Amino acid sequence: MTDQRRAARAPAATGQRPTGPPAAPPLQRAGADPAADVRPTREAQPTREVLAGYLHERAGELLRGLRAHDEAAGSAETAAEAAEAVRLLRRSARRICGTLQTFRPLLDTGWSDRVGAELRWLAEVLAKEHEYAARLDRLLTALHRLSAPAAGPDGESAGSVEARTGRPGVGAAKAGALLERQLTLARTRAHSAALRALGSGRFHAVADEIAVLASEAPLDEQSADRPAALTLRPLAELTHRRFAEAVDALPHGPEALAHTLTGTEGRHDAGWHHVRHLARQTRYALEVLEGPRPTAPGPGADTGSTTPLHAALVLVGRHLTRHRDAAEAAAAASAAGRTPRIAPATAYALGVLHADQRHEVEAARLAFCRTWPPAGDR
Amino acid sequence: MTDQRRAARAPAATGQRPTGPPAAPPLQRAGADPAADVRPTREAQPTREVLAGYLHERAGELLRGLRAHDEAAGSAETAAEAAEAVRLLRRSARRICGTLQTFRPLLDTGWSDRVGAELRWLAEVLAKEHEYAARLDRLLTALHRLSAPAAGPDGESAGSVEARTGRPGVGAAKAGALLERQLTLARTRAHSAALRALGSGRFHAVADEIAVLASEAPLDEQSADRPAALTLRPLAELTHRRFAEAVDALPHGPEALAHTLTGTEGRHDAGWHHVRHLARQTRYALEVLEGPRPTAPGPGADTGSTTPLHAALVLVGRHLTRHRDAAEAAAAASAAGRTPRIAPATAYALGVLHADQRHEVEAARLAFCRTWPPAGDR
């Protein structure tokens, strides 16, 4: 664990600092839940209604995304609509995937594993284009921040200093151009790959499965009529426990920026990515139990939380996504730095950028440790 | 102010974060000082005895350092003794300087300003060699940390990964060699400059003044017989207040690593260096009032604190020195990065190193804000 993480967790403690991230709070906290008066009703319903109902809704959403994409794709004028449709597709695919995984024992497991794997493939293929675009955006923003002249102690801009020293901006500009070239190429390829995937027989086979799912979920008949509280809740608790255990098992990372020059500085990232995955799984499981969130379009769609735990998972999810994005941006800067025959100033700027993004990785870990577990559960 | 600094200062506060560093504690805290039973006796003494006594001791120390240097200099076998003698010289010069400045109204001001300026020059000339050596050491240590392979999540070393990817270490090794060349050259020049200074007429003139000071300090006769509590203490309080005000005036810095590519990222460093200077001045003033510290050789010599405030100043002094060292090391890495015709991998490693040292600058600021004001005075 880094000093930063320790400090964030027990800033005023003297000597008695915890040695690992604290355990997650229990899934359900007595009396503290504003949705407590709603949930029992839902959990008293038969498993079939709750689980199949949720899967039907998500499947319908996925099919709507697919139709919207078919209508918008292929024209520059409707690129924004196509991108939004892809977002909806990914959103539903991730939720169905997570639901199939968490509640696997209540479903036809063969079917569930097969469809889950295909949806994971689909969500990954569809995510790439957006990821490259966001990565480029993140790196150019960072370069801008790194190469903006500082205001002086009296607020005066340092423009004149920069003008005098002349060259510092050159490396940043060249590094930006190089990254733009490399990531735009990657993005274009990802776009084509996504279009190919959506036109493939493999995709049509998944779409057929989803069309069936929209009206009929292959539930295990023995559990289908039991109340959700006895079937869904224990499995949601299990997912939540796996999340808590993954948080506990987070490696005690090295100092910020250590190993940055070896290509091994991201060795501990995987543990954090796993935590991110499980935080999402837990959040989706809660959505099944507590009713789906508003599906308004846009990045704010996930914020309609009805319970504090769901809200906390949304919040730490942002930190964990920022962690993932920064780690991948650092890797992209590092890869660009290995481009043959670049100017030393370009390489220098990419080195600073790489370190800056690893610093962001640390900051995201710190932010996670500051917000998890939520204040009431410490 | 950076997020880190804010967080360190009010980690659990919600919304009500202070907007600037807190004020320094009062110089004397009622009842909290273990030396309180000693100090009044000393402060009841006449100004002459306390102030002149302190100056005599420091002047004697400086002359001993000078003799020790004369005996040890010029031979490789006694280089360690010569370095230790220079350390003693600098230590005494800094303290005499600070004392002359803080208690200027009680001294012959013309003499005090002249000798103070000459001692400042001497301390600066003598410090350079050590500073370049320490800077190289800091940068090579950082490069080592940055280029050491990370242990895996299971503790397994990443040596094999590095062996497979091959090249990451090359840039770090070349960067290290370049820095070693540049800073060793600077260090050698500083060594010659220090020897030249110690053989100069200018130095002999200061040495003569110090020889006189060792037996007789030019005190203002009107104050010389008054008790130290009425003359020295108010001036020490004034220095302490200037320190507190400088802490309050610390610029609210940009985010960590912002502006790193412009050569203007150190624009706010000067305010911190000023705080470091005033923390030292305050500490030296306390030493005059409370009796000198043990002068045992070595870097631990300053730790024989008799009061909590002195101990706190020693502690934050370390953070502020680390701040200064990291800022100058970052500048050295940046300067090395502008060496013409270096390989891109070397430039890349220097960029990472530069960012790493700016990260250290931020960490030192955070550490300062965590330890100042001392816990009892918050």
From TrEMBL, chains A, B:
Gene3D superfamilies: CHAD domain. Residues 1-46 are annotated as: Disordered. It comes from the Bacteria. SMART domains: CHAD. Residues 44-377 form the CHAD domain. This is CHAD domain-containing protein. It comes from Streptomyces tardus.
